[in-house]
Design goal:
heterodimer, A: 288 residues, alpha+beta, Uridine Diphospho-n-acetylenolpyruvylglucosamine Reductase, domain 3, Enolase-like, domain 1, 2 domains, 5-stranded antiparallel beta sheet, 11 helices, 14 strands, B: 153 residues, Ubiquitin-like (UB roll), DNA polymerase, domain 1, 5-stranded mixed beta sheet, 5 strands, 33% helix, globular
């Protein structure tokens, strides 16, 4: 095995082009587990932690570019108000030690169906920026996840950033079911983003990939009393929960049964809708 | 490969490090610092918590090569000579130790918490120590120890 330690993105892309089998390594919270347990022996490790530009973010004109190597702890501390949905999901990742090292780029690289940030990236309409010696391209989140632990990256590409729209008064919520509050891989998870008549909703750990739930999104976009601070009818919340549950395609595994996941996602959908609508009502009242 | 890093303020070198090796293995097996414990090797238990450039991390999840030219502080680096750090002394005084295996990781995590939050609430302590598992004393004495350390500082 080789250990490749580029100082710049340019060097990293050249190394990845030369050795497509090299495994990118950032916080190590997935890759090192595979090495420690002898599940993986890549030809090379490509350490990305020395590349300063991957660990930066910038915000301008209703948009954030989040470098792939910004650890969750910094995302929570520095962007908690700007990207509340992503920060909520980040707070549920692992433990303080894991959040100090783990990154959204790593979550995307692993592309686990249970990865915590995926539902938020899907619901928010994020784009994943990837680069290679051939150039840079952006992949919409909904085209990024191609199978269980598989993503749309070419062999010579690296994930460099995530682009997210931001709102002055965001209505974004994330919730997750697990057996305790820390160190939990999601049994199932749900994200909801409400934005000016537009609804983004996505499920995690309940299908081969994280995925949006288009029927449930369209229903809410049409039925929500946008621009008012009216409370929501129980019948609307219930119908939304049913449509989300209907979009699941879960399996039985050690963390939970398929039946439980489908049921729990219906519940999470109703609850997050209540919370997100409360955010929306708060901003309507603040403007009144 | 050869690894150069600073550990507890001293420049250290390790040779013949395997490229897939963890920082934890280097600390314990090559540099003679067995304070950081090796248990789960997957970041679940927190027993190997060290400071890496002053940020707490599970040493089992840091590749040795990622620590090149970095600064590592282990539990062995917290005491000032024979004088224990207040966090260490409080764990002793509060009886927050039974078998002791989880103690080094808990001490480092609690030490970091008190740098950020000098007078933490029970909830803040529970949150800060959520990545450290103890399988014998239970956590009440550990909470007592962190409060006592906060009072002593």
């Amino acid at each position: 095995m080789e250990f490749v330690r580029p100082d710049t993105l340019e060097e990293a892309l050249a190394a990845k082009a030369e050795r497509p089998g090299a495994v990118p390594l950032a916080g190590g919270t997935d890759v090192m587990v595979e090495l420690n347990y002898d599940h993986r022996r890549p030809e090379a490790l490509l350490d990305l932690t020395r590349i300063a530009e991957l660990a930066t973010w910038s915000a301008s004109g209703g948009h954030v570019r989040l470098g792939a190597g910004v650890p969750y702890t910094r995302l929570i501390d520095e962007l908690g108000d700007t990207l509340p949905g992503l920060a909520m999901a980040s707070r549920t990742v692992g433990s303080p030690q894991i959040r100090n090292r783990g990154t959204v780029g790593g979550n995307l690289g692993a592309a686990s169906p249970a990865g915590d940030t995926h539902p938020v990236l899907l619901a928010a309409g994020a784009e994943i920026e990837v680069a290679s010696v051939r150039g840079v391209r952006r992949i919409p989140a909904e085209e990024f996840y191609t199978g269980v632990k598989r993503n749309a990256l070419a062999a010579d590409e690296l994930i460099t950033a995530v682009h997210l729209p931001t709102e002055a008064a965001p209505a974004e919520q994330f919730s997750k079911v697990g057996t305790r509050n820390a160190m939990v891989i999601a049994v199932c998870s749900f994200a909801l983003v409400l934005r000016d008549g537009h609804v983004g909703a996505a499920i995690g750990s309940a299908a081969p990939t994280p995925r949006r739930v288009p029927d449930a999104e369209a229903f809410l976009a049409a039925e929500l009393p946008w621009g008012t601070d009216a409370p929501l009818l129980d019948s609307l919340k219930r119908r939304f929960g049913e449509l989300v549950a209907a979009a699941t395609e879960p399996i039985d595994d050690v963390r939970g049964t398929a039946e439980y996941r489908t049921h729990a996602l219906g519940v999470l959908a109703r609850r997050t809708l209540t919370w997100a609508w409360d955010d929306h009502r708060g901003s309507v009242r603040a403007c009144a | 490969m050869r690894l150069n890093l600073t550990v507890n303020g001293e420049r250290r070198r390790a040779d013949d490090v395997w490229e897939g090796e963890s920082l934890l293995y280097v600390l314990r097996e090559r540099l003679g610092l067995p304070g950081s414990k090796n248990a789960c090797e997957q970041g679940e238990c927190g027993s190997c918590t060290v400071y890496l450039d002053e940020v707490p991390a599970c040493a089992c999840l840091v590749a040795a090569g990622q620590a090149e030219d970095r600064e590592v502080r282990t539990v062995e680096g917290l005491a000032d000579g024979d004088t224990l750090d207040p966090v260490q002394q409080s764990f002793v005084d509060s009886g927050a130790v039974q078998c002791g295996f989880c103690t080094p990781g808990l001490v480092v995590a609690a030490h970091d918490l008190l740098r950020r939050e000098p007078d933490p609430s029970d909830e803040e302590i529970r949150e800060a120590l959520a990545g450290n598992l103890c399988r014998c004393t239970g956590y009440e004495k550990i909470l007592d120890a962190v409060h006592a350390a906060a009072d002593a500082r």
